[in-house]
Amino acid sequence: MDFQPIYKNTDQINSDAESFLDNYHHSMSIPVPIEEIIDLQLQIDIVPIPGLKDTFEKAGLDIDAFISSDFKSITVDKYVQEKVNTRYRFTLAHEIGHRFLHGYLYTQFKFNTIDGWIDTINNMPLYEIEVVEGQANEFAGLVLVPRRILKDEFKKALKESEELCQVSYAEKPEIVRGLAILILAGKFKVSEDVIRIRLERDGLKKR
After folding, report:
1. What residues contact residue 77 under an 8 Å CB cut-off, 6+ apart?
2. 3-state class (DSSP) for residue 74
3. Beta bridge partner(s), residue 73
4. N or C: which end of the chain has fewer CB within 10 A?
5. Alpha-carbon gap, residue 173 to 132, rounded angstroms
């Protein structure tokens, strides 16, 4: 099988993410209702499995979920779904990213079980796996924290942070920015790491 992903930079993946949002969440309200989009609009079944992450770890894989090759279901670790909401939301956006970014690759395979996915991924070239996983992560971040609204939301969060800290950004930039990241994580319902990465990608936060 010819498992050769197409290279895409952040801007190209952002174009795919914006197209996805235009089609399935044109109101652009936050947090983006990724579970509802997948379940109700795309009509993809979300299947929670107890201990799924442990099963993958035993196979040497750091995976919370997988999307079937026919794109009819996303199987996800039940604990992540029930207890780690930010991780669950990112995982769903990541898996749906595979459908919209890598459909041309997934159609080469036939799997819808845990063992089938383990066998499939173990037979893929490591570099190519890293490429598609990195692209799906980028897509997930851009869908859950859309570029077109992040700048304004960051400004609002900085102002709110200054008011809460009772200091200006110029006086205590790290403190004000740190609280702003926490505020944004709550608004978008993602982890603080996702917010940090998105701010860095958009040039809103220096490394």
Report:
1. 48, 49, 50, 51, 52, 53, 64, 65
2. strand
3. 45
4. C
5. 35
